[in-house]
Write a structure and sequence with these properties.
The chain has five helices and no strands. By secondary structure, it is an all-alpha fold.
Length: 132
């Protein structure tokens, strides 16, 4: 099976998920120190700083829709429903999620929600293609 545009966007999104995990962890480790990171992390942990909190929330936000994106892409591929609509949807989802991270990290309101909406539209397009 060739790497379709949908699978390429899915693979890129998985890389993005790993980058988000590493970025949130690195910023949190810089706040608490390597000793905390290497330790058992028992006891009270101070709340994250602004950047660490934003990166973690952006990561959590991705993980809310990522299973839906994975399932939709796989279903479209298996059902033979891929085409312009699913390719556009996959790219909207990926690029929306990619742009979402720095916008959230910088704390830009409203634009963050609009970019999230772009990614959501991409997901909706893939799911809609399953029914046409």
């Amino acid at each position: 099976m060739d790497m379709t545009p949908e699978f390429i966007a899915l693979a890129a999104t998985l890389v993005l998920a790993l980058v988000q995990i590493l970025a949130a962890g690195a910023v949190r480790t810089s706040e608490l120190g390597a000793k905390w990171n290497a330790g058992p992390r028992d006891g009270e942990v101070p709340p994250p700083g602004k950047l660490a909190g934003r990166l973690k929330r952006a990561q959590d936000n991705l993980f809310e829709t990522l299973p839906l994106f994975i399932a939709a892409v796989l279903m479209a591929e298996v059902a033979g429903k891929t085409g312009e609509l699913t390719a556009m949807g996959a790219h909207l989802y990926f690029f929306g999620r990619l742009v979402y991270v720095p916008i959230y990290a910088l704390g830009i309101p409203y634009l963050r929600s609009a970019v999230w909406g772009v990614a959501a539209v991409g997901l909706i397009l893939i799911i809609a293609a399953l029914f046409v």
